[in-house]
Design a protein that fits this description.
single chain; Four Helix Bundle (Hemerythrin (Met), subunit A); mainly alpha; 5 helices; 0% strand
């Protein structure tokens, strides 16, 4: 199974269609919100893992999955989904590696959005 693309460009196009004449202002705004919020959610994953709080970990992974899907951050969505499912099925004992992968992919995603929508 191949890894998902980093950013699903069709999702970006779908967002552009919501406000086609705004020179990407809407997309830039929601990308900005996503890039501000996701590190907070990642920190929440780390805190809930450290505290052994499986339900909070699963909810946070679900939140990242949803926001990533909305923006077309396909790789992050996939990893967040895996974290959510694994934490439900197996608890938190085997999520640290996936969490590290998610953190790396967030950095890559942030850089790619920066290239797509320079400040």
């Amino acid at each position: 199974m191949s890894a998902p693309v980093l950013i699903d460009l069709q999702a970006i196009e779908n967002l552009r269609e919501l406000n086609p004449d705004d020179n990407d202002a809407f997309v830039r705004e929601i990308v900005g919100i996503y890039l501000e919020d996701t590190p907070l959610r990642i920190a929440e994953l780390e805190a809930s893992l450290a505290a052994g709080d499986g339900p909070r970990f699963s909810r946070t992974a679900h939140s990242i999955k949803g926001s990533s899907a909305n923006l077309g951050a396909a790789a992050l969505r996939s990893l967040a989904e895996q974290l959510e499912q694994r934490s439900h099925r197996e608890g938190l004992g085997n999520v640290a590696g996936l969490l590290a992968d998610l953190k790396q992919d967030y950095v890559r995603t942030q850089a790619e959005f920066g290239r797509m929508f320079p400040a």
